[in-house]
Amino acid sequence: MANKKDQMVEKEVLNQSEAFFNKNKKAILGVVCALIVIIVGSVLFKAYYSGPREDKASTALAKGQDYFNNEMFDKALNGDGAGYEGFVKITSDFSGTDAANLANLYAGLSYANLNKWADAVKYLDAYSPSGDAMVSPSAVAALGNAYAHVNELDKAVSNLKKAASMADGEAKDGVNNSISPTFMLQAAEILESQNKTDEALKIYQDIKKKYVNSALVQSQEIDKYIERTSNK
């Protein structure tokens, strides 16, 4: 599921910065959400049962995960009035727990899906990434995407580059062909929207050189970006 979304993002040609911001929101969030559902739901969540407070926080988080997975983002954030109090309250009531940290990520993604980008930035920035290869880099990329929506473009580029570096750092051969090219592509397009054409072109060229087994390079789609930027 996540790979299919990655390929969709990698193959999309965006000609204007406005198109980038509008079209990539669902794509990047889709990647992150899918990873969370698959990885967190089956692996990480189990690790949070390490004590009474953590146990209580994890139990509270579980109901929110259900609402999140069913795209009931307002209830996921603010509670359902029937015992579940929401991600926002979990982050404050159980501050310092792993579950509260994960609630920050869920809250940020929920706000992003509701187009409340300032709130998305707040909670995604509060999330502390770990050393995993997929969820944490994707979370940092989601923060970059949120920064783009509030027009903090330098921070957007910085976080997208950081996300790619994190993903590469955890890859066996130092190259994550699945998600890193997507993040670098987005960073380059933001640079283009800032008229930083030379910087964007260098990233496009680096993608072609480094991520040779990615769908973006294999399909020769990256050549369109290189050609377009070279002619500016």
DSSP summary, beta strand count: 0
Number of separate helices: 13
Within CATH, the superfamily carries the name: Tetratricopeptide repeat domain
Say what oligomer this is. single chain
- Radius of gyration computed on alpha carbons: 18 Å
| CATH architecture assignment | Alpha Horseshoe
- Could you estimate the helical fraction of the residues in percent? over 70%
Low-confidence stretches: 1-21, 38-46
How would you describe this structure to a colleague?
The longest helix is centred in the N-terminal third of the chain and has 26 residues, at 17-42. Helices cover 72% and strands 0% of the residues. The protein is built from 13 helices and no strands. It has one domain: Alpha Horseshoe (Serine Threonine Protein Phosphatase 5, Tetratricopeptide repeat). The radius of gyration is 18 Å and the shape is elongated. This is Tetratricopeptide repeat protein. The chain crosses the membrane at residues 27-49. It comes from Prevotella illustrans.
What's this model, at a glance?
The chain is an all-alpha fold. It is about 70% helix and about 0% strand.
Provide tags for this entry.
Serine Threonine Protein Phosphatase 5, Tetratricopeptide repeat; single chain; Tetratricopeptide repeat protein; mainly alpha; 232 residues; membrane
List the helices and strands and how they pair.
Blueprint: H1 2-11, H2 17-42, H3 52-69, H4 73-78, H5 87-93, H6 98-113, H7 117-126, H8 135-149, H9 153-170, H10 180-193, H11 197-210, H12 215-218, H13 222-230
TPR repeats: 137-170
Protein name: Tetratricopeptide repeat protein
Transmembrane segments: 27-49
